Every structure is written in structure tokens, then in C-alpha cells.
Amino acid sequence: MTMMACTRRLTLTAVLLGIAFVVPAQAEEAYDPWPGLVQDIFNSRPMNDGSTVIGIEMPYRAEDAAIVPVTLRSKLSPGDARRIRSITLVIDRNPAPMAAKFELGPDANVTEISTRVRVNNYTDVHAVAELSDGQLYVSKVYVKASGGCSAPAGKNIEEARNRLGQMRYRQFEREEAPASRVREAQIMIGHPNNSGLQMDQVTQLYIPAFFINQLKLTQDESPVLSMEGGISISEDPNLRFTYVSNGAKRFRAEAKDTDGHVFRNEWDVEKPGT
């Protein structure tokens, strides 16, 4: 199931959300969408226990279902010859369950990724790592949150339009010695990331889906991290991550959204600024 295939279903989903349809609580609780998602998203490939491969951290009970923090962390031991090629984040009970797929640069050694997501129902959330051995490894957490995909935008239309595509890049001090090449950075992009399930409070019509669906980060021309995003990524996408510097002087970002806009920016690694 691709991101765009999920998006095409949103109009129908929005209509169905307006229909009163009562499901017995026990039946709803017993339903497990994960086996079907393994078939649709991963073509029924075998899933291995990822407890020693990939960690996923989210609050058990979210304070705000529209901006739920999630951190994905490599748990591979330093001596493990394998590396993580990609991580797919799946929010099982969201209207478009595949929230994001992250591709990790082969030489960037990304070990941690944090972002914010929308959660629409009490749900399992899975992180699936594909390793260089070609195998899939899965971990999961359970999150209590609801209504995140249909929650009103935090900014009005005019404000969101004025900030569209604006990017900021930050670096953070790390405990390692200054000579260490490990860096921790953050990319923030101004974008409403409309889910297609939010209602215009004036017209009472659903706002069309409009979100960042591609993001590529590089140090000079060497890939660091890329993201294929969907409606579950929160308004104003925010990505914080670790990587190993290759000595490049420039850090670059390129983002695209579902309306075809392309946003680019670059920063001096030693003077990232805003």
C-alpha cells in the first residue's frame, strides 16, 4: 500500500466518519488490523522479533493526539556487522496506517529519529526495520489517543500559507568529545500537513489532504536520511536525528508536497543558524 494509495481513500474515509456507526466495544477491541497491514504494506514478508534491533518510544497516554512524540532508535550492538537500511512507522488504526518510511544513508550511521505524529484511535504502533541482511524486524508500543487526524489545525489558513516551506536547521551539543563526528540535528518545515479529515470551521467542508510526502537530507551530496511521509505526520513536520559527519561543510534539505511544491535550503554545518 503506497502513501498515495492511502491518500486516495481519504475522501471516502471522511464521509464515513460522518456516519453514525456503532460497533460493540468488545468486537472493536478484538479486531487486530496488523496481519492485514503486513500483507498490504510488506507483501506478507516474514517479521522477526525486533526487541534487540529497533526500539520505539511513545507516551502510553498522549497529551495531544495531533502531536504525539515518537522516537525510533537502533538497538544493534556496536559489533553487529548489519546496518538498518530503512524504518517503516505504522500506526495500525489510523485511516492511512503507514505514517512514514525512513531510508537511512549507507554511510551516515543514523541511530535515532524523532518526530511527531497524529494518532486517531487507541492503537498499536509498529516500527519495522529492514536490515542489510534483507530481513524485517518489528517492535511495537500501545498508545491511548484519539481524534488526532481530524483535530483542527493549530494555525489559521493565512498564517500557514505565509510559513509554507520555510525551513530551519539546528544542531545540538552532544556529550561525546569535541573530536567526535557524531552529530545531532533537527529539521523543521512550515507546512499545514492537512490530513484530509479536518473540517473547515467556517464552510463545514473537509479540507483536502495536503502534506509533505518526500524529504531528503544530505551532507554535501552524501545521503543522510530521507522520508516518505503521509497524513499521520503532524502539522509543521519536525525531524530530529543523529548521524555521523563525513566532514562536509554544507547540510542540504529538499522537501516536496502533494501539490507539487518543492522546497530547498542549505546551511553551513559549523554555523547552522536558522
From TrEMBL:
Superkingdom classification of source: Bacteria
Residue ranges of domain Ig-like SoxY in the record: 39-149
InterPro entries membership: Fuse-rel_SoxYZ, Ig-like_fold, Ig_E-set, SoxY, SoxY_sf, SoxZ_dom
Claim: Signal is one of the keywords in the record: yes
Residues annotated as domain Sulphur oxidation protein SoxZ: 177-267
Pfam hit, one: SoxZ
SUPFAM superfamilies: E set domains
Signal peptide coordinates: 1-27
Key words, A-Z: Signal
NCBIfam families named in the record: fuse_rel_SoxYZ (TIGR04557)
UniProt-recorded name of the protein: Quinoprotein dehydrogenase-associated SoxYZ-like carrier
Native species: Bradyrhizobium zhanjiangense
